[in-house]
Design brief:
18 strands, 12 helices, 29% helix, Phosphatase 2c, domain 1, alpha+beta, 2 domains, protein phosphatase, six-stranded antiparallel beta sheet
Length: 447
């Protein structure tokens, strides 16, 4: 997951725009990360092609420089291709010919930029271009786009992960490998702009490199049946399924909420309440919601979503719980593990109240205390086992306390020692009290 803050940055940068065809909102939030590496673009009418709309999200890693450059310039490279506008899919990606695409063009341009080429940085790219009632979705990486059509989910893109068979074949053929579901044990996605460390084989073309910028492109005919689009980085999709997002947006529009409010509520929902979640809900988050107006008032879409939602509830076809009643801390919620932390908090608050009955209020529980409480809870739950294995991500706490003791049911002191760190997941085991160890903490991050 990489380095995290002691408290998340929850300030949201939200923007809106609208014309007779679209009502659009975007929102981004830094969250638990130490910096914001996402970028995004929404243009209702391209300056060089006024009949075309462009929407894109870029999830940067290793820094924000590649994501920012791409958000400013990728659409320009696409429309400058000789294939545009007669063959937009070909302009977006190389397919039947050996020509470069807009994605590969901008990748080459960044490689020639002095400030970028030596950077160990890259970015995903999920882009939707709309022209002449056709939707072109181009994806490189694990950001994602979905749509709602007649109240039903339409998946517009596929994630590019190193363990996908097609991706793995390309990686090995180019001289790389896959370890811990990461490219060369490092990068958690297999296609990206930038990441030039993985694009140095001069004997093969750009689309065959260990990591390629070549996008997959899908084409869809638009009609008045299309309700809305959602583009977002994996900070959203790691927490929620495609169907859950469609359900939430549909239900929210039916309640009369505007896209900007819906974006912000989704970011808040997906933010982990604590950073000890194995990376879940701890990433930067960016989302764009594009509502299709089709030249009609906003209320028309509101009424459509009311109808869809009522029909699905009546037919019991709502595949996931309605968001208005969905508890993210429930057993089937994304942050069910927090119940352990909450139980620890309750226990410690109770102990402090008993020890300091004269105090009107107890002092806040520190991160170290919460961490100790989690370990104690799990050790008590599994005291019958000889080996204890626990996953945590608060590396700052581990650096301060690499050895933590607790008392078992027999009154014996047990010590938890950090023995290994793999991909920001700390593996711990019970060892004799006389042993000592130091934490081998990795702060590296590759998305």
């Amino acid at each position: 997951m990489g380095q995290t803050l002691s408290e998340p940055v929850t300030v949201k940068e939200t923007a809106i725009c609208q014309d007779e065809n679209y009502k659009v909102a975007s929102s981004s939030m830094q969250g638990w990360r130490t910096s914001m590496e996402d970028s995004h673009t929404h243009i209702l009418s391209l300056p060089d092609d006024p009949d075309t709309a462009w929407f894109s999200v870029f999830d940067g890693h290793g820094g924000s420089i590649v994501a920012k450059y791409s958000s400013k310039h990728l659409h320009k490279y696409v429309i400058q291709r000789p294939e545009y506008p007669n063959d937009i899919p070909e302009a977006l990606r190389q397919a039947r010919t050996k020509k470069k695409s807009g994605f590969l063009d901008i990748d080459t341009a960044m490689l020639n930029e002095e400030q970028i080429k030596e950077q160990m940085a890259g970015t995903t790219a999920i882009c939707c271009m709309i022209r002449d009632n056709k939707l072109y979705c181009a994806n490189s990486g694990d950001s994602r786009a979905i749509a709602c059509k007649n109240g039903n989910l339409v998946t517009l893109s596929n994630d590019h992960k190193p363990n996908n068979p097609e991706e793995m074949d390309r990686i090995y053929n180019a001289g790389g490998w896959v370890e811990f579901n990461r490219v060369n044990g490092n990068l958690a996605l297999s296609r990206a702009l930038g990441d030039f460390l993985f694009k140095r084989n001069q004997l093969i073309p750009a689309e065959q490199q260990i990591v390629t910028a070549l996008p997959e492109v899908s084409v869809h005919d638009l009609s008045e049946d299309w309700d809305f689009l959602v583009l977002a980085c994996d900070g959203i999709w790691d927490v929620l399924t495609n169907q859950a997002v469609v359900n939430f947006v549909m239900e929210s529009i039916a309640e009369g909420k505007y896209p900007e409010s819906i974006c912000e509520e989704l970011l808040t929902y997906c933010l982990a309440p604590v950073c000890q979640m194995g990376g879940l809900g701890g990433d930067n988050m960016t989302i764009i919601i594009i509502c299709f107006l089709h030249g009609k008032p906003w209320q028309h879409l509101v009424d459509k979503c009311k109808k869809y939602h009522a029909e699905k509830k009546a037919l019991s076809k709502l595949l996931e719980p309605a968001f208005s009643t969905f508890d993210r801390f429930a057993a089937d919620g994304p942050f069910s593990e927090v119940s352990v932390l909450k139980a620890s908090d309750d226990s410690q608050n109770s102990n402090e109240s008993s020890s300091h009955t004269s105090s009107p209020s107890s002092s806040p529980i520190s991160t170290e205390d919460k961490f100790d409480g989690i370990l104690t809870e799990i050790l008590e739950l599994h005291e019958a086992n000889d080996e204890k294995m626990i996953a945590v991500t608060d590396t700052k706490v581990l650096e301060q306390d690499s050895k933590i003791s607790s008392q078992n049911a027999d009154g014996e002191v047990e010590t938890v020692k950090v023995i290994e760190v793999i991909s920001s997941t700390v593996i711990e085991s019970k060892v004799p009290d006389s042993s000592t160890s130091t934490a081998n903490v990795s702060n590296g991050d590759s998305n």
